[in-house]
Q: What sequence folds into this?
């Protein structure tokens, strides 16, 4: 009997490189694949209406973090079906404030970070700036983003902390804008991609800053330090397929955030390797 894989996908990702590539890779490997999007999960009383179908799967994979997708993961887990990745792991990286605190507690290099509403943070940072001398806080620019934002939605570059006052009551994560090569970030971010224990590094254009670098976007060498950072981040949250956003600084790479199941842009053979990882999860269960 061929392996039966159910792929749960948030609608905004349905036509992206992933999970479309994963689905093709699984079928090429001989697996039977069923794709359930938000619309399908919303019918038949939501994921509970698909409980029997989910229970018959050998493994359930999720690309997305919508309520329907997460409920589908939980339904599969309650039936003892392996999932990639568990709902708790995906949920753990949704809240950027809690994510940052967990990364910091683990001793990973992270930017100084503050969480709160715009008006709260404006006052707090104004006081901090008077107490902390020298860079990078004094006169530095800041990055503000919604606690539950993703895909760069709602990210703002702020010249001064008082700008936060006008951002209203929404809870935000504010981080210092770090320095690359003696300048504010040069417009290229470093993304680490992980499938199981395999790690790739890619430079990608920043979603908020113009590219001023002479370096080109694309794959870069994975150093021992980058590999160590990548493989430390995932287990903190229970992820096996994930991305780590970093900034390269004179002191070394700094972790900005961790994301569940990315597109694996510029990673050659990602779809085939993802399929192998998913099918390997089934073998682990039956071993």
A:
């Amino acid at each position: 009997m061929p392996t039966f894989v159910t792929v749960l996908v948030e609608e905004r990702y349905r036509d992206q490189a992933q999970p479309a590539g994963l689905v093709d890779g699984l079928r090429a490997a001989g697996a039977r694949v069923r794709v359930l999007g938000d619309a399908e999960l919303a019918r038949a009383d939501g994921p509970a209406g698909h409980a029997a179908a989910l229970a018959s799967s050998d493994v359930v994979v999720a690309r997305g973090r919508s309520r329907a997708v997460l409920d589908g993961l939980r339904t599969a887990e309650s039936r003892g079906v392996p999932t990639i990745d568990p709902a708790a792991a995906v949920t753990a990286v949704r809240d950027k404030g809690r994510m940052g605190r967990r990364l910091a507690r683990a001793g990973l290099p992270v930017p100084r970070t503050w969480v709160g509403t715009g008006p709260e943070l404006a006052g707090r940072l104004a006081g901090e700036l008077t107490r902390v001398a020298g860079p990078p806080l004094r006169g530095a620019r800041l990055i503000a983003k919604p606690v539950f934002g993703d895909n760069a939605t709602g990210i703002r570059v702020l010249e001064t902390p008082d700008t936060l006052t006008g951002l209203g009551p929404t809870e935000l994560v504010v981080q210092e804008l770090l320095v690359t090569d003696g300048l504010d970030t040069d417009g290229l971010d470093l993304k680490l991609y992980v499938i199981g224990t395999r790690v790739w590094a890619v430079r990608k254009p920043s979603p908020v800053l113009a590219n001023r670098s002479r370096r080109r976007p694309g794959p870069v060498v994975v150093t021992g330090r980058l590999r160590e950072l990548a493989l430390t981040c995932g287990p903190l949250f229970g992820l096996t397929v994930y991305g780590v956003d970093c900034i390269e600084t004179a002191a070394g790479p700094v972790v900005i955030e961790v994301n569940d199941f990315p597109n694996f842009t510029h990673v050659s053979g990602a779809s085939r390797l993802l399929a192998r990882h998913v099918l390997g999860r089934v073998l682990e269960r039956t071993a």
